[in-house]
Amino acid sequence: MATNFQLSSDEKAALLSSLEQRFGENLSRHEELQWSEVRDRLEANPKKLWSLHEMEQTGGEPDVVGRDTETGEYIFCDCAAESPVGRRSCCYDRAALESRRANPPDTTAVDLATAMGIELLTEDQYRELQQHGPFDTKTSSWLKTPDAVRKLGGALFGDHRFGREFVYHNGAQSYYAARGFRGMLRV
Question: Which of 60, 78, 96 is where one domain is finished?
Answer without folding.
Answer: 78
